[in-house]
Amino acid sequence: MSQTDPERVEQVRANLLDARSRIEAACTAAGRSPEEVSLIAVTKTHPASDVRILASLGVTDVGENRDQEAAPKAEATADLDLTWHFVGQLQSNKARSVARYADYVHSVDRAKLARALGKSAAEAGRELTCLVQVDLDEESRPGIIGPRGGVAPSDTLELADRIEEQDALSIGGVMAVAPLGGDPSAAFARLYEVACRLRDRYPRATVISAGMSGDLEAAVERGATHLRIGTALLGAR
Length: 237
Ligand SMILES: *Cc1c(COP(=O)(O)O)cnc(C)c1O
Hints:
Layout: H1 6-30, E1 38-42, H2 48-56, E2 61-64, H3 67-76, E3 83-86, H4 95-101, E4 104-108, H5 111-124, E5 128-133, H6 156-164, E6 169-175, H7 184-201, E7 207-209, H8 216-221, E8 226-229, H9 231-234
Parallel strand pairs: 1-2, 1-8, 2-3, 3-4, 4-5, 5-6, 6-7
Helix pairs in contact: 3-4, 4-5
Bound molecules: pyridoxal-5'-phosphate (PLP).
């Protein structure tokens, strides 16, 4: 059983140590405390046995980007009491499934999705924390969702209001993926400004979900509170 494969455990343990030391070094460089930065292990394409290994090593937060894969994996590891983060683009017709296991949805990018999630979470008797996904492409325009998902920065507050209208949802902050080929540091600096404006209106909305395996240092430097790390922990997909 891969679940108890000692070599896999050692590999993931070493990767986790490496990732944690990268995060610590980035925090030191930025004058931040590592306690301000949470690690979300993105387990997409990797088996539920890897989720068990991560949990045995102290990881409490896991992320997935496709409901078809996430729903069975969350069910197979329900005994572990993990916090599940849905981080991928989400169709409204999948909201009902996601609302059953996710604790956080990072990728809310339109009012229709907020309504669908709100309705489904209420029906399931659950509460979801939602992040507004912001498109950091410099060309992003109000009212248009970019290729990597997300609203234009200027649409963020409006969508946060739509999320807060739903009794079963609360606005938790913002999320972004650095644009392909751009400077992640400049992009994450734009995200930080959006996050500050949002927090002025909703003081509880403190999450800044930014940074992946390749750009976590830039994200920490620019104030990220949650890093979504896949490859650096579990290897290539
Ligand atoms: C896959 C994924 C990640 C993790 O990316 P890595 O480069 O493997 O660390 C982070 N965020 C989102 C939205 C993803 O889809």
